[in-house]
Input
Amino acid sequence: MTKQFLAGLSEARLLAIIRGENAESSVAAALTLFEEGFRYLEISLNTENALDVIARVAREAPEGAFVGAGTVLTVDDVARVRDAGAVFVVTPAVSDSVAEGARLGLPVIAGALTPTEVVAAVHRGATAVKLFPASIGGPSYLKALRDPLPDVPFVAVGGVDVAKAEEYFAAGAIAVGLGSPLLGDAPQGGDLGALRERARAFLAAAAHTGIR
Output
């Protein structure tokens, strides 16, 4: 599962991150992104009724789509999101959830910033490392990290807009995680038409970038 997940994410290059104050709007935003062609989607546990949102989106996800849970911090969190239907987990840090997710066979994208944290995440079984917050160092920092750690799959997360996405791809990120620059206010009940336009722009940027 982890190899399939990583290969697919490396091909898709985009991970949508939903953190919503309104459960119904969060579900609608998720399904809109699937309609536009997104295949990897993380629903943060900070979302209203997050477990219910995960379950609903997982039930309605198209074939070949992956619904995961974000802000997964504890061993109990891992069990809860797995039972809700999440097929991967994302953490903001190197927490107990990394090793627990790996133990259960779930792909884990573990949050890390420093080289020490990156190595710790990999040793705990992370499938990929979420460089977070990527905006602190930008693409040049990612490139510097990859020099001594070339085999670590990095997903850049934090303030990634369309232009920055292409820069992170060029710096070696296998994918980028997209929160507010993609979702805007859609998870709070905002315009889904505008969400579709932003989604198409990111999809075009990912398709345009041939760097692996």
